[in-house]
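Form 7-S
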Amino acid sequence: MSSPAEIPGIDAAVVGRWLSDHVDGATAPFTFERITGGRSNLTYTVVAGDGARFILRRPPLGNVLATAHDMAREHRIISAVHPTGVPVPEPLGLCLDESVTGAPFYVMSYVDGTVLDGPDKVASMSHEQRRRSAEHLVDVLADLHAVDVDECGLGDLARREGYVERQLRRWSAQWESSKTREVPAVEVVAAALSAAVPEQQAVAIAHGDYRFGNCIVDTTNASVEAVLDWELCTLGDPLADVGYLGVYWGGDVDAGPGHPNDPTHEPGFPPYRDVLERYAERSGLDVDSIGYYVAFSAWRLAVISEGVYARYRAGVMGDIDPAIVAMFEASTVTLADRALAALSA
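Output:
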């Protein structure tokens, strides 16, 4: 565990006092360790003097848009979802006083388990455990989409209708402002998506980044113990989450090549068509237009990838690993091509 002076984004002494005063049962002294892997909000494991563990999230360092890294909004969402039975960490405290550590932050419970963000993470799981974990991932998503947005207190989180249209406008503008080169497939897909938006069947809590890489899984029981990273969550079309899952899903012709940091191309995981069948049965929604939503999600990821690549080129992402830069440069094109393929499937 690193010493307090080595933790960027955390004033250990001041945050420690805040934890003692505002989080029930939090006992000093505290140690902090950054959880690596994300390229957006910063996440830390906090260990209290009695061994209890918590999780703290705050925005990235430097100048950021508050609307893109809104800690109060994330805290509000998990506070609303937690009582519904959808597995999320328990919210424990929200600090909006930026004098504590330079930015708002919130604290939530620590959940034991494994984030399945690569094939190595499922090496110890049997094929049966892999299948059951995939089924539970789908069931949790369907349960999230079944939550009554008014009853849980999120009815005013965002506009309810026109989700895809709003997303197309938002990410098209983002593409124009961040692109570093011409990638014709991005514009072709955007035009095709805009011309054929399916009717939105329901209004749901749309997670926006739902996949194994954003869940904590009990690999023995093959169950999703917590859904993480609610930064992109809004109200919208539930099939957008299902299509996004399809971009990451691998191992069968229906879903395409999958994604390198997703384990579902490993043996034992069901094909994407089984994912769709289970979701449709659980949710009661028609998934016949899912190819559109896979294309939409791959296109959105292509735009996001280009934005990350542009920030690396501009030198605002810290130390540059050439391999990572090359990965994002290539993934923009790969994802745009994937979106084209999904539209024609």
